[in-house]
Design goal:
This protein is of the alpha+beta class. The chain is built from six helices and 18 strands. The longest helix is centred in the middle third of the chain and has 15 residues.
Length: 370
Amino acid sequence: MESGLITFFDITECGFYKKRKSTATSKFENIHVQGSIKESVEQIIEWAAQREFEQTVPWCTDEAPSKPRVFFKDYCIDHATGECLIIFCKSIKNGSSRLHGFDGSTKVGDGKKDVFPIDNKIKGKELIVADIMYYWFMPEENLLASIKFPHSICSTDDITYFFKKCVDNFVPNEGRSTTNTTIYNQFAKRDIAVKRVTYEASDKTSMSYVFNTEMKEIELKNTQNLDKLCKQITHIVIRDTISARKAIETESLSDLWRKFRNKSDDLTRNKHVEIIEEVFLTASSLKQLIQTYSDDIESGSIWNNIGFKTGANNSTKWFDSYLARKYIVLDPKDKKEGSYYSAETIMQVLKKQKVELLDFQVKDIKAVNS
């Protein structure tokens, strides 16, 4: 089975906004005029559904030649609520140049042939080499969630950028106007056409499409709060697994050992390491550390972990006992061509577990040293 870690985001802004100067702070703030996340999702699906995959990048790649392309791959939507699972693909490279695979067994700087071109064509067709990204949109809860499996990545900034570019460039909205200009692009080393999009509200003021999110606060259990916990921590403990591959010298082997080792001259050994470091943490640095644990440690790992001590001689307490993480579990057999899960497959699981997944209650907890 394969676990997908879910990270939730509050949708702080989505739709059309105009600027207004605050009388209290003298700073400009966004004032919502129209539009919603439900409308945006429906509009983008309507636009993408009628296109071929390679035509779903909603910006001119000449304008941003160094920016990875993001494609719209698949979706499953509940039209009544607007709840939706969308699969995006983020290109690993731009252009049609070939990928390169490196021989991991070669020594650094030994001069031997260690790189092999990987052609991105099959049967004459050019392939788009990309990473999978799964995103769950929940308009009724005003939430967005990324789902990270071992075979996928997350890049929420790319998703909000995708939405803005799609709305600005392809979705017809009342009050929308465009102007085309030409500027010199230093990366492309030539003049390129640039389209400027503006919107006018009913009161003739200007507005713009905005889509912003903010990661939900980390939920802890068994601790009173971050401020109190960080003052008690004296050491951070990190457990990791390192892999080392070592060639065995044939001369040193006995005949009996050669028979049992199946004529292999290499050994791959995984070493478990534990690092203990004295620290002084603030609440913000502790929060960042816990987020690192949440992002980097896979569910079900036997050894890898991040923990802390509340005194040099006290036992280690592990963050997996303190952090409430949300997962879904799928069978790899359900992947399409052994590559990725369809939007419908993931959506079915999310629907069944939605109540549990959205239970963000912070439970009453015991003190750290109890």
